[in-house]
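Appendix B, record 7
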Amino acid sequence: MNRSVPALLAVCALLAGCSSGSSSQAGSGNTTYAAQVASTDLYAKAPQHVEIGITSSTQQGIELLTSGTVALTISPYQGGPGTAFSGSARYIGAPGTETDTGTAHLTDPSAGRGVYELDGTFDQPGVWQADVTFSVDGAPVSLSTQFEVASKPELPAPGQEAFRTKNLTMASHADPASIDSQAQDGAPVPDPELHQDTIAGAIAAHEAALVLFATPVYCQSQFCGPETDELARMAKSGPKDADYIHIEIYKNFPHQVNAAAKQWVIRPNAASDPWLFVIGPSGKIVDRWGPLFDPDQIMTELRRLAG
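Structure tokens (predicted):
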């Protein structure tokens, strides 16, 4: 439960949702491993994408576990109410970083960073525990970490009606940096195709939409920039009758957030990014991912909706 160790600091710096749970450490010689649930706004009675990050700390520095799968069991903490679920959590890397080699191994964060994802449903709110096991160079490692599951979501969630948000676009009379934080000091908005439409407009047109809330410049997790770039790639290769929308978090960093971001992803207990929402042509939220998503999985779902 100690949150001050170097390994946990690395998790907090590289993974979104640092405040969502505690971490555990397991040592092997001069190496200390730590696990942290990266997902935020977990809640009961609905399917969830549970993402967990794993770090290794030595005197030489911090590395992240990447690639392959890990065994993950999620159960009520200390025999509390609820039904456990388990499986092989698969690796989801930040776009543009080291590709999945198929075998879990330690990687320098500058080369590869990501999380392991397992889908399941919490049947009761309360404190839950994630037990993860894996091997590094033949040596087994077991970790546990606790986290909260609420009775209902704080952020917009699948099955709910999407907010008819009139987010900033290229047509807005606004500081370009409030449209995309990369557009500073006279630089243009790097991906104008992601800032052509509003959520309200997509819903009115009965089009499916991918909506990414991310601040590429100010993102602590280092996931926002790569994910914004990935959304731009998806916009080029995905269905043409769908909308691809990036919404910058900050109107004026660090003092003021954009109204759209405040409406969707800023809450007292769940103020985190990046978040990707899939909105169907009916205007209902179909799915959401935070902090990382698998582009192939997203495109399969989007093609189904758009088709």
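Remarks on this record: The chain is about 15% helix and 35% strand. The first strand starts at residue 24 and ends at 28.
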